[in-house]
Amino acid sequence: MSIAISNAIIVTQNDNRDVYRGNVKIDGNKIQYVGKDEVDGDILIDGTNKVLMPGLINTHAHVGMSASKGLFDDVDLDSFLKKTFEYDSDRTSTGIFNSAKLGMYEMIGNGITAFVDLYYSEDIIAKAAEEIGIRAFLSWVTLDKELTTQIGDPVENAENFIRNHVGNKYVVPSVGVQGIYVANDDTFRRAMDLAEKYGTILHMHLSETRKEVYDAVKKLGERPIEHLHNIGILNKRVLAAHCVWATYHEVRLLSKDGVNVSWNSISNFKLGTGGIPPIPEMMRENVNVTIGTDSNGSNNSLDMFQAMKFSAISVKNYRWDASLMKAQEILDMATRNAARALQLNAGSIEVGKLADVVLLDATIPSMIPTNEANAVSNIVYSSSPQNVDTVIIDGEIKKINGKILGFHSNKFTNSEFK
Amino acid sequence: MSIAISNAIIVTQNDNRDVYRGNVKIDGNKIQYVGKDEVDGDILIDGTNKVLMPGLINTHAHVGMSASKGLFDDVDLDSFLKKTFEYDSDRTSTGIFNSAKLGMYEMIGNGITAFVDLYYSEDIIAKAAEEIGIRAFLSWVTLDKELTTQIGDPVENAENFIRNHVGNKYVVPSVGVQGIYVANDDTFRRAMDLAEKYGTILHMHLSETRKEVYDAVKKLGERPIEHLHNIGILNKRVLAAHCVWATYHEVRLLSKDGVNVSWNSISNFKLGTGGIPPIPEMMRENVNVTIGTDSNGSNNSLDMFQAMKFSAISVKNYRWDASLMKAQEILDMATRNAARALQLNAGSIEVGKLADVVLLDATIPSMIPTNEANAVSNIVYSSSPQNVDTVIIDGEIKKINGKILGFHSNKFTNSEFK
Predict the structure, then answer these.
(1) Which of A214, A240, B43, B306 could form a disulfide with B3 if both were Cys (CB 3.0 to 4.6 A apart)?
(2) Which of B374, B380, B382 should we substitute to test contact with A (largest number of A Cβ atoms within 10 Å)?
(3) How many domains would you assign to chain A?
(4) Chain A residues in contact with B71 (beta carbon < 8 A)
(5) Helix (H) / strand (E) containing A236
(6) Interface ipTM > 0.95
(7) Is A408 exposed, middle or buried (0-12, 13-18, 19+ CB in 10 A)?
């Protein structure tokens, strides 16, 4: 099956960041042609008045909680954690499965073609991802055995999950660690051994809150990033979510160790845990920064357009410098950088890349006028889910003409989400 | 002409903030019934799986600049101002008219039923508002005669504009002042005289940037709000945009004088001018706080859902307190408080109020599940323009089934916007 997209403004996100009006051919699950020549295919998509861009990659989520929106709002962090803990400890497989499907449909609707998840019960979430067909990097969360509500040893559970899902079409299994506040050195080491044994990422929360940093210093004599560096856990396999409370010294350690960072500004802001990581310093030190939404429990939406805009302007404001965090840099984080973190052959519109692409409708007033000169700016600052016209994942159409294929809201209206 | 809306979750925004499933009847341009009884009308709208709420009111915009998105991004404030000044000084009537129409269609698409504008050439913008049918509170901007590029005396221009537009169906004319940095006491006094003579609002920029405050202190020996209070300009007619750099003493002055504040967080953040006004203190002192988008030049979108969410979480983060700025308080600012500032008989779904209402589609994944308990939270934290199904202004349908009536994007594709 081939798809020909003609006459679109192509935001390639290639090494030159070329933006031009042209045509793209998808053959099977790969991009076969990008350029000015006419293209033909089994399915023809008219790209006139549309912007073609790589699919957005959400590098930190907990999709099993997607139906929890509005349950934990406007309360302090301790109350939030207490409420989510109670919610999580009492969940059914059906609830997790339905919530995960809901979140995946939301992400596809919003132009997200791949995401990274951190949760227990990733086997259930994997089933949802395979059924829907979205690229799911699923990290089974581990923590100290004596602190978990998981049945059995979390690290063994993670290994079973990875072993059972290696080689799946859509699911890429991996291991996670909840965070330094519930994982000792041994748990971190066992998780990293697992990541190295199976060649996966190690996905973790890191330096999200002040309390986490203070407690680590008190207990370990070191800040969280310093400590994980010193015990040899930090390397290029690590995808570290948040990293809000990193010192410049720690930024250099992240850089030296090749750690990938997932920046989750909306969640950090909404929880009041301190929202502004040292992103400009990370960029200066060539840390690979990506962007995540976090869950519907703390963000209330899985919207990477919103995350891109808010991330950009939060730093501009905090540093009193509007020239920081340029639209192009932000779009790189949400596409190219994320693909690099996941070693995914995607993140740009180039020949040979996986066909994970999005078409934005530029006929909606918020995107008028759109042209080659302002296309990147309009993606980052003016777009929202209403602009997402077409979503293609692995060469398959998942949303077209604004309609999410296979999604029927009535199947969720009375569903069990708990 | 009457409209009957049945079986919707009604977020009334009445004094009790009642939220319940029920029916609404609109007769002519007023709400005639709200409750549980069956309703009938010339037009029947099925509200099942929809949330009915008052139309959003955007209290600070410059819609004549709506086509300028992507032109002034990622540069420091001085460069931004230089670029916008050059852009503005060279505009045609056609460009302003087309840009204004574009911005009004964008706002209707996004669930905004009324807005407040600050610009010169409001006579052109008034024509666009009357043609499209959106409630437009248009403030002709004044400044010192020797500093303006307007032809003639700005205050006289404002008076002519007001005189020519009193009593219009959609347009409510008023007077504005650009700001203390280009307006001396005499200009402020003449503008206020005009507002009192014609019973209009006085709409101004106030304490938006640090430079504005420093320069005022240097020149006048007082901070901007203090100074305007001391020369008798501040009263309940005033709608003051920004007020970022207000001290607690100044907050008390705003409260004492009954000034209405328009909070424009996204624009303030994106320009790096300091984004967090003392909103909790304003609320404590009963200042009437409302929310604005500012222009597409500095915000790049006219999206009050985005503005509500960013405004809420920016304060939560800044004050390290997630319990501040509750969803209900934020929704009040965007509806009830704004109507109060404008003395507009709207802002809630109640019998006798103007029929400015919006229906949100809750069948989109981002709004599932929505029920009476989380409806307000979902409006503020989970909704975006894609949820705006129906918009009714003054009893007339302006958007239905997600389609903006009368809007044809091809009329804008090659339009002259400059």
Answers:
(1) B43
(2) B382
(3) 2
(4) 374
(5) none
(6) yes
(7) exposed
